Amino acid sequence: MRRRRALAVLGMAALLAVSACTAGSSPEPEGPAAPTPGTLRVLASSELSDMKPVLEKIQQETGITVKATYTGTLAAVDLLAAGKVDGSYDALWLSSNDYLRLRPDAARKVVSETSIMSSPVAIGVKPATVSELGWNPGDVTWSQVEKAVTEGRLTYGMTDPARSNSGFSTLVSVASGISGAQSALTDADVDEATPQLREFFKGQKLTSGSSGWLATAYEHRGTVDALLNYESVLKGMKGLTVIRPSDGVVTADYPLTSLASSGKDTRETVRRLTEALRAPDAQRQITERTLRRPVVASVAPATGLDTTRRRELPFPGSQSVADGLLDAYENKLRRPSRTVYVLDTSGSMSEDGRLDQLKAALTALTSDFRDREEVTLMPFGSAVKSVRTHVVKPEDPQTGLDGIRKDTRALTAEGDTAIFTSLEKAYEYLGADDDSFTSIVLMTDGENTTGESAAEFDDFYAGLPAQEREIPVFPILFGDSDRGELQGIAELTGGRLFDAQKGSLDGAFEEIRGYQ
What we know:
With 516 residues, the protein is of the alpha/beta class. It has 3 domains: 2-117 and 254-294, Periplasmic binding protein-like II (D-Maltodextrin-Binding Protein, domain 2); 119-251 and 310-330, Periplasmic binding protein-like II (D-Maltodextrin-Binding Protein, domain 2), CATH 3.40.190.10; 336-515, von Willebrand factor, type A domain (Rossmann fold, 3-Layer(aba) Sandwich). It has helices spanning 2-21, 52-62, 73-81, 98-101, 104-107, 127-133, 142-150, 165-179, 187-201, 211-221, 231-235, 264-277, 280-290, 319-333, 354-365, 397-409, 419-430, 454-462, 483-493, 505-512; strands spanning 39-45, 65-71, 91-93, 110-115, 117-125, 156-159, 204-208, 226-230, 241-243, 251-252, 255-259, 293-294, 337-344, 374-380, 388-391, 437-444, 473-477, 498-499. The strands form 3 sheets. Strands 5, 6, 7, 8, 9, 10 and 12 form a 7-stranded mixed beta sheet that branches. Helix 1 crosses helix 3 and helix 17 (419-430) packs parallel to helix 18. The radius of gyration is 23 Å and the shape is globular.
């Protein structure tokens, strides 16, 4: 199953990237340095970075300092199972331990968990679309959502289930709701619902590796009707009617979890932190600041959070079902990806082993390419040197993957750096395509030195048809590239900048996968 190989790469990328995501001192690749007494090294889900004000107040009250390293929930579980967390972290704080419990190699490494807050999966829909569909928000079911999507009346965005727990929880919610499963999802449930699920995911117009960028892309594009995400994320956005389907959803409960590898004193500190987070004052601060729901009965949810009860949809009962659902989504259900890799192979790439790093990163990335994916390599120097396109065909994926590896090995470094001219060629090559997730990845180790200027590219981009302006560019900061120049490209096109100067080129390419 390709997805398990992809998660192995993802786990390594997350491990290499922790220094760029950690609050406090920069850790070594194997994890943060040993803390002082009263400090907890916590491996946490990415969205929990919004808990910083709450943790700062708890530090003042209890003396407990949290040094958090943020990563994706599924990547964190892979690191735990591989033994990469033992001795490097004192606790886990993930959006959910549901997937962890399905992994015996991970589950045996935790000893206790306590829920801190909760947020259900929900659908945020433009009010005008709600009105056009004739929906009563309190009564909408997953079947109604599916019907609106298959009729072409509702489009949406969601995060990548293989990278984000909000995406995974959404996938489970959709599969459970559409299949009508009355208990934990089975392979048979997924197989039976696959035709409907395939139609449902035709309506997905946005994908993302993080909830934050998904919201930004939704606002930048403006043509998508809805977002599927945690209620807390959707409530934090303006102009959305937030709907919890009446037939049930999956809920994140954010358990603070002690590790078997930690000592008695550390576990006691985790217990004290848990107690502080569940205190009424902290619970009120949590729900008011983050719009997540309190887990202490005496504390009311923040204003605007619907208290109507909803069924908790069943989570898959085994790892094989969960992984099978993810594999089906990636390789059969979702729209295929179509990406142009605009690769700087100018003369400076021959320095410091940069070209070798690029070749190694691209070669490793081939293990993560999905069925039906179209990959175009567009190396450039003073101009675009070649355009080579490969498709990972389900009936013969190896031919496409071998072609990508062969073209990668053939890359050579020479010439100047024509960034903007090459980006224009990428847009001209792609054109409009409503049947795929289309994007451009730009990797450069320097600033633009020849060809079109930034201002000329801005004019070119402004003149593109509206649908082509929806194609984002994901630049990678590498070597001596100019952060301002690349950030400008990302902001103009609705993309996101990835930093391989602080992390690794492998990690940057892999992280972008959640956005393709």
